[in-house]
Automatic annotation (TrEMBL), chains A, B:
NCBIfam families assigned: asp_kin_monofn, asp_kinases, PRK06635.1-1, PRK06635.1-2, PRK06635.1-4
Keyword Transferase: yes
InterPro entries found in the cross-reference section: AceGlu_kinase-like_sf, ACT-like_dom_sf, ACT_Aspartokinase, ACT_dom, AKii-LysC-BS, Asp/Glu/Uridylate_kinase, Asp_kin_monofn, Asp_kinase
Name this polypeptide is given: Aspartokinase
Keywords for this protein: Amino-acid biosynthesis, ATP-binding, Diaminopimelate biosynthesis, Kinase, Lysine biosynthesis, Nucleotide-binding, Transferase
Domain of life assignment: Bacteria
């Protein structure tokens, strides 16, 4: 039996009862002969409460101090979890990100992991301890200041530790049973996925699936660490994310799932002269303001005018900043106008082998058409098709696509497309 | 203008408003040209809430993890305070006990400071920052584990940092105006003391005064760091504790104040054979159980029986343990019985020059007698007389003594005893 890294999110350790339940599960893994490293998030709403407090003392909390503040949350949960484990008769020690050797850059509030040097964790394990590590935090390489890893940081901590410790598996415990073929709140017939490749999981994550974040999956893929996403409330098998392709037959498309995302807005730059360098100027203006964009679509220009429209999607929170940045470049670029639309939804179909299989794209569009959903933008990748629709049509659209591709839980099996071309 | 260390307790930073008020006061000190180091406790009831959480997951919280848990409290308050200061336009950085170089032994929950190496604090100050340091915590020298200093630990942190940084003064901010001649809740006419020596303050602290703890005053005396105890709610001068004797005339007794303590119980070992080694056996049994005792009184034995009684006081919380320990030695020692009494109070009169001045002891006993208060035990030191009385007589007794020694705020001046002898 090898080393297992388990990660528990805030909802799993929301109160003393939750902590005791999690402690029991950890001890079970230890009893099964594993060395166990546990990464834990802050309890329930702790982080939100701390953010609220910060807002009360300062409208613009400083990065360094904000990180110092937020990291108190994991300190509380990890110490309590270690106590609860010791109370069950097993040895446990808790470690801050710094003590666990999580070395980051100095970008406060969204630091990136540079290195993991888990010497103290290794020693604690060798001495028979269960090691509890604070998720979401590290220490900066140059200044030795406390840093936080930003959104989804605890999952990344877990995968990074699993890689550094050469773990058998990184188990991500959450309040759902695993990764589903669609959001079960939208599609009641959504099915739990048993196995999914890193690549498909990456596409689902970047298309709106919230179970695992892109960053954590990317890290796991790079170091080839299998992730097992499962519920902390049941003993059921969840979803394995790995570089295995499951039982997919070569050259056949397997649809992994349907993701949707209503957190984005769409900006259309209308009437852009269709000549070299115009698009570059537009996206340089966006990039200079550190705005991350998602889909970008440009259609052929109308021959009569020599003008084209460029549309892109971006997080709603960045909308105002992007519009301001573009307005300033209006005279340079010479576009006609800007349109801003935050009533959109993105629906994505993800699956391996899609590009080399016919009918997937057609089937996707037909399903939307049959449901009366209009498509506003289309974007594709090797293993994903995404469309933008009206926000109020998103649920209907997701259900229609989910059903059309045989993903519903009452279907006999997923639709498999054979052959070539799309 | 030199370096000032300011310490703010939990009641001063109980909420966002308190933190902002404290931030303003800190910035004022900085504007006055001082280098400022601030030691801060956890907000309001945070520590109690964390202790309560620990109790919910484990009946006997482990030392190491308990310290990890509790230190989250200062992490929150110090980060918020730094943010609030930055919001006022001044630079501030917060530091954990470990980052501030507070090196301790490995006794979790009540570690002792071994060394202070404030290199990062010095650098932060030199760069123009206000340095905010977490009180109550350090890092163990051997294992590099987080430790806490126990009760009153933040005051000790402040004095230790003041000593290591060679500060002009260590300001202890609290919710009262300073040290009083008696507890103002018991004696409404109690007066604020302007200046008091380290020695008198030590005696007051060990006699029940709660404003400063013995340990912190002892540290300040050893390194000769003046302490200024003052209110965080007003700009008034508080009480200066230093090695100066104030305006006391040599060879005259100045009464500093009357302290009382109702946290102790009394144990009497009845009928102890009056021969060498009996007392040693009794107190070795107590010491082996790590019980701290306070007053010890043995009277001459009755000639007829050759038996004597030995009484001592100790914290009520240790009473059960002490009785158990003594019962086990009953056959060895051969005493008759044990009496346990937790309805006692200790009243102490503290003042320099007492021993060499007549009438102080007599005046003390007369005041108690006039108030109808019976004395059960008496114990004296160089600068203190303590008596044990019934608990329900304590308020009356304190007021009577306070008044008899001219300490009441409507008295013209404190009574001064001249001459020699007592």
């Amino acid at each position: 039996m090898g080393l297992v890294v388990q990660k528990y999110g805030g909802s799993s350790v929301a109160d003393a009862e939750g902590i005791k339940r999690v402690a029991k599960r950890i001890v079970d893994a230890k009893k099964n002969g594993h060395q166990v490293v546990v990464v834990v998030s802050a309890m329930g709403d702790t982080t939100d409460e701390l953010i609220d407090l910060a807002g009360q003392v300062s409208p613009i909390p400083a990065g360094r101090e904000f990180d110092m503040l937020l990291t108190a949350g994991e300190r509380i949960s990890m110490a309590l979890l270690a106590m609860a484990i010791k109370n069950l008769g097993h040895e446990a020690q808790s470690f801050t990100g710094s003590q666990a050797g999580v070395i980051t850059d100095s970008v406060h509030n969204k630091a990136r992991i540079i290195d993991v040097t888990p010497g103290r964790i290794r020693t604690a394990l060798d001495e028979g301890n269960i090691a509890i590590v604070a998720g979401f935090q590290g220490v900066s390489q140059d200044k030795k200041d406390i840093t936080t890893l930003g959104r989804g940081g605890s999952d990344t901590t877990a995968v990074a530790l699993a890689a550094a410790l050469d773990a058998e598996v990184c188990e991500i415990y959450t309040d759902v049973d695993g990764v589903f073929t669609a959001d079960p709140r939208v599609v009641p017939k959504a099915r739990k996925i048993d196995r999914i490749s890193f690549e498909d999981m990456l596409e689902l994550a970047s298309s709106g699936s919230k179970v695992l974040l892109h960053r954590c999956v990317e890290y796991a893929r790079r170091y080839n660490i299998p992730i097992h996403v499962r519920s902390s409330f049941s003993g059921l098998q969840g979803t394995w994310v790995s570089n295995e392709q499951g039982d997919r037959k070569v050259e056949q498309a397997i649809i992994s799932g349907v993701a949707h995302d209503t957190s984005e807005a769409k900006i259309t730059v209308v009437g852009v002269p269709d000549k070299p360098g115009e698009a570059a100027t537009i996206f340089r203006a966006i990039a200079n303001n550190e705005i991350n964009i998602d889909m970008v679509v440009q259609n052929v220009s109308a021959a009569s005018t020599g003008l084209t429209d460029i549309s892109f999607t971006l997080p709603k929170a960045e909308g105002r900043k992007a519009i301001d940045a573009l307005e300033k470049t209006k005279s340079t670029i010479g576009f006609e106008s800007l349109r801003y639309d935050d009533q959109i939804a993105k629906i994505s179909l993800v699956g391996a082998g899609m590009k080399t299989n016919p009918g997937v794209t057609a089937g996707f569009f037909e399903a939307l058409s049959d449901a009366g959903v209009n498509i506003e933008l289309i974007s594709t990748s090797e293993i994903r098709i995404s469309v933008v629709t009206r926000a109020d049509e998103v649920k209907e659209a997701v259900r229609a696509v989910h059903s059309a591709f045989g993903l519903d839980s009452d279907s006999d099996e997923a639709v498999v497309y054979g052959g070539t071309g799309r």
